[in-house]
Prior knowledge:
single chain; elongated; alpha+beta; 9 strands; 165 residues; four-stranded antiparallel sheet; three-stranded antiparallel sheet
Amino acid sequence: MTSVHTERSLSYAALSNGRRYRSAPAVHEPRPQPPPAAPRRSGAAPTPRVRLHLKPGQKGTKQLLAQYGDRLICVRYRYDAQRKKRYKTVELLVAERDWKPRRPRRADDEIVALRVAFADVAVRAQLKQAGGFWNPDRRVWQLRYDRVVALNLTSRIVDEPGIPQ
């Protein structure tokens, strides 16, 4: 005697008495979850709100001013509603040194002077094509700053006062 086994599709589950039913996951499939909110720091609560910002010498800073002296920059009072806490924080000056600020960024439509060697024929051709012109009095090429940036020629800019725009 041979037994006949029939193959059953994967979407059905066979019961012992031969009846077929759809599998449970196909009927009760869970809905996709929405993406999580913006990532937070691991296990950290939201940052407490700053409700008071005091300068040295104001009421509430006298003891800290006596303790830290001229190094005290400011005192902040932060309030955490979740934990029902108030925090007093101080900002202290810990180091001081000279610093030279960057020169301000040029306006896109500002005309700048460029130093290009006579032998740089390819660069001169680029300048001409971009609308640049030769200034024989100053012996420089002149072109709008935004085009100089586009041509990647900012290293050739010459700082000369009094260039007409």
